[in-house]
Amino acid sequence: MKVLLASAEAAPFAKVGGLADVVGSLPAALGRLGVDARVVIPGYGFIDHVEHQIEPLFSFDLRHRLGVNEVKVFCCRRDNTAFYLLQSPPYFGSEGEVYSRWDWDMERFIYFNQALMAFIAQLNSQTGWLPDVLHANDWHTSLLPFLIRDHGDDDSWGRLAAVISIHNIAYQGKDAGGFLWQAGMHGRHDPDLLELGLTDNLLGIGIAYSDMVSTVSPRYAEEIKYGYTGYELAPLIARRADRLRGILNGLDVASWDPAGDPNLVVNFSAEDFERKRPHNKRYLQSFSRLPVDVDIPLVGIVSRLAAQKGFDLALPALRNILARRDLQVVVLGAGEPDLEYAFWRLDQDFGDKASAFLQFEGALAQQIYAGCDIFLMPSHFEPCGMGQMMAMRYGALPLVRETGGLADTVENYDDGEADAGTGFVFQWQEREAVEGTLNWALDVYEEKPAAWRRMQGRAMRRDFSWTNSAGDYIELYEQACANLRA
């Protein structure tokens, strides 16, 4: 089976969120199961071609409603996977970041979908490679299923199954009608789109025209059928429920491995973490300008600072507990200005207990995972989440809300000898719920060290590799092909 994954992001070339981690690591796992999986992304200007050994492959002219643009195709191999990068100024090739203004992003990603169709045709004609399945990801590439069906009278396109993965349904590419008209797109006449008023919603178009739809955890697949989580697309999702699958994201366990991570001061595993892991906590405390004492519980946060992440609940809870208990907090993240200010203020008000790094830096993130005791992730909603998996792999116990992938991956402590549990889970979206659960976790840390260590060992041994999920994706692709034939 041949699969082409199309995305706006793919690690390590261009990464903003979890989308990049999935697209960057899933293809290698598919390859180990016999699938010829390849990836295509925009050739952003900030990508270092020398560092990644990226070479030119071919180029072609793309004629579209606004004129003619040259598309340069570059290629490299990583983990035995071919990655293609498309440059086509002014849309892609000179920018310093993945995303820009809303209106420009709408125009350039619609163009990217058109360029991708031409690229697939060129790849077939110049190299003889044509995918059996085209796997779109999020709204940035969600026009592909529609464009494939729009070319359905051509035998090559008629045999190509389309799949779309929803990584976060909150981002949909809404109000795209004017941009689609400008790009010369044909009308979207799917009855459900027309009835629900979604003909100008890019993600909705992708869902309506795909042979199968996936999202990044089983729990999230259920949640997006309802308006609270699925927003305007919930009715469409419910109508497509027979074609929807929730497949839990995996981790690149070779990269996220505390036994070999070069960013740690002392490496450790599930067999020797009790002796070796505390060295990383001491280093993190020292680096964060906090008192160095392994007995003080340390809460870590590594996150995009956004309303979705539940910090409106966590910040007042942290303030109350910091004022009353012996506790340390280390935060790494950037995002919405009001949340950045709130964490800066926490740092200033509790300088000997809290330290905030308002940026993102990969090595420090891994040091936090390896050094903190509790990893706080109180999200209002979380399609899958990777942070809680990384934290568990590095021996930190997550404290999470029961939603989406957090509910699928974190087992709540049994409040006993830890015969069950890999973390602490709360349900209600209330400050009191975060505060009460955090106090509970601190009590366990201080009063039941043996139970805590049992949970750490269990968490570190959880299998979050792509092996199982990659098999689920193969079944998804096979079902998409069967639906297309039917």
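That was protein one. Protein two is written in the same sequence-then-structure order:
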Amino acid sequence: MKTEQKNTGSFSGSRAARPETWDNYEYTKEKIRPEFLKYDQETMIRRFRLKHDGDYLYLPFVGSEYRIRRQTGEVEKLTGQGDSVRTEPADYSEALSIYDILCYSRSDATLSGRWSLVNSLPGVGQNSGLGDNSLNHHAQYVDQHPDAYKAACEAIGGKEVPCGDIGYEIPVYPFYPIRLRFYHSDEEFPAQMSVLFDENTLNYMHYETTFYVVGCLMRAIRSRMQERIPHKL
């Protein structure tokens, strides 16, 4: 089965019924994992220029290195450096974000260079999406710590762009960026943050996956911000 083949059910992120003794998300992740093995890994390597060896494929994601075990499809996050490198299992959102981009994206997917809110992407109806309100708690935190936010974005490869009061374009995958647009609060309005996607995003991933990607990204930014803030709020 080729990497470019669409699989509209396997990687869409729908939740399965869980056994009593398993966490729902972990159960769904384990159910989806074997689907990864149906796709041609050599095609993935060539198309996405993945580092690889006989045991693993490697893919940077939201500022960290991940690896996929080629025989089982298990996804692990690498932490630390040099002799102190450690691994930990990827969580549901991390694994789904990696499976979907490698397996679902079309062979002819290219970036348009045009940016859009997720619910304004071509082919998306008026669903409840990643509007300003969904990131309110992040916006309030950034409003209080803008320097830490800038440092955190840059620590995961972001570059500042003219977009709102503070704008960053961040390579969530090496070949696929998103933009974060932030406005400071003032006397009339609270702080606001929006996520902008390339207009061709749905050629790379399912609509549902955009939520997982943004969740992983904001978690990475918050973690790095807190490293730079003496007192966590």
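The chain has two domains: 24-103, 115-227. Keep this in mind for the problem set.
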